[in-house]
Amino acid sequence: MGWMIMKQDYSLLGKVDVTDYKYNKVIQIQHNHFFKLAMLSGVILPTLICGLGWGDWVGGYCYAALAKIVFVHHCTFFINSLAHTSMFGATQNYSDRHSSHDSFVCALFTFGEGYHNFHHEFANDYRNGIKWYHFDPTKWAIRLASFLGQASNLVRTPNCAIQLNFNKLLLKKCKKQIEISSQCIKELDVPPTETWTWDKVQDEVSKGRKLTVINNEVIDLMGTVPTGAGYTHKSTDTVWYSAHPGGQRILDMFVGKDATSAFTGGVYAHSCGAEALVAQLRVAKLKI
């Protein structure tokens, strides 16, 4: 609630035309007698109910009145802090131009205002939670009032406009993920700088190295593969040679040989994941 007690620059705040409220008798009664009504409904009535009902005057005053006011006020006003963070599984579904988020947890404590991203993007809509399963009792109360003839001209944002915002933001998020993935590919897909002849391959194999050739690239089956930030794992431990689904014997069949045909369907048509893994085991290009 800190933002409420800090001095604000009112020139930066938006203005809303509420002149129509001046002609609403019910709202004017509430406006002119707000403090008296607040004391009556928030403090006096809860205390009387507990005191006259089961004799707990102190409990009625301390808990049903004062503690309730503190709890409700904090829940009402923390929407301007918690709903502007990514806490409690909150997401931005309609816009990322502001910090507001949609949060089911916040909605439970604020009578539906937890769907704050929608509220900021479509502020004139009488709803916050637009789905039938969204917890928004304020929306339901307004809708009920309209059925009873006590509310009219309810403003609803066209579904096509809502869906357009949702899809545009989803596309933006997808593009960002593609950029991250592309950068990852650039970091991992580093071609070998050395060029070896077949004689060089055979010489290295005679020294005990398990090398094979796939698509004119020399693959070290006992090499290392980057698996995370700042560390590597031996392929013999976790990746290719010892964990190969077909077993080590089939790999040994192609040590010192060209395994392109076997890798691309002659024995088994390997997956894209296998191709990405093999790319990390390259040690040289084969001189043709």
Automatic annotation (TrEMBL):
<dbReference type="GO" id="GO:0005506">
    <property type="term" value="F:iron ion binding"/>
</dbReference>
<keyword id="KW-0560">Oxidoreductase</keyword>
<dbReference type="InterPro" id="IPR005804">
    <property type="entry name" value="FA_desaturase_dom"/>
</dbReference>
<dbReference type="InterPro" id="IPR001199">
    <property type="entry name" value="Cyt_B5-like_heme/steroid-bd"/>
</dbReference>
<keyword id="KW-1133">Transmembrane helix</keyword>
<dbReference type="GO" id="GO:0004768">
    <property type="term" value="F:stearoyl-CoA 9-desaturase activity"/>
</dbReference>
<keyword id="KW-0408">Iron</keyword>
<feature type="transmembrane region" description="Helical">
    <location>
        <begin position="34"/>
        <end position="54"/>
    </location>
</feature>
<keyword id="KW-0276">Fatty acid metabolism</keyword>
<feature type="domain" description="Cytochrome b5 heme-binding">
    <location>
        <begin position="238"/>
        <end position="287"/>
    </location>
</feature>
<keyword id="KW-0472">Membrane</keyword>
<keyword id="KW-0443">Lipid metabolism</keyword>
<feature type="transmembrane region" description="Helical">
    <location>
        <begin position="60"/>
        <end position="79"/>
    </location>
</feature>
<dbReference type="Pfam" id="PF00173">
    <property type="entry name" value="Cyt-b5"/>
</dbReference>
<keyword id="KW-0812">Transmembrane</keyword>
<dbReference type="InterPro" id="IPR015876">
    <property type="entry name" value="Acyl-CoA_DS"/>
</dbReference>
<keyword id="KW-0444">Lipid biosynthesis</keyword>
<comment type="similarity">
    <text>Belongs to the fatty acid desaturase type 1 family.</text>
</comment>
<dbReference type="Pfam" id="PF00487">
    <property type="entry name" value="FA_desaturase"/>
</dbReference>
<dbReference type="InterPro" id="IPR036400">
    <property type="entry name" value="Cyt_B5-like_heme/steroid_sf"/>
</dbReference>
<dbReference type="GO" id="GO:0005789">
    <property type="term" value="C:endoplasmic reticulum membrane"/>
</dbReference>
<protein>
    <submittedName>
        <fullName>Stearoyl-CoA desaturase (Delta-9 desaturase)</fullName>
    </submittedName>
</protein>
<keyword id="KW-0275">Fatty acid biosynthesis</keyword>
<dbReference type="GO" id="GO:0006636">
    <property type="term" value="P:unsaturated fatty acid biosynthetic process"/>
</dbReference>
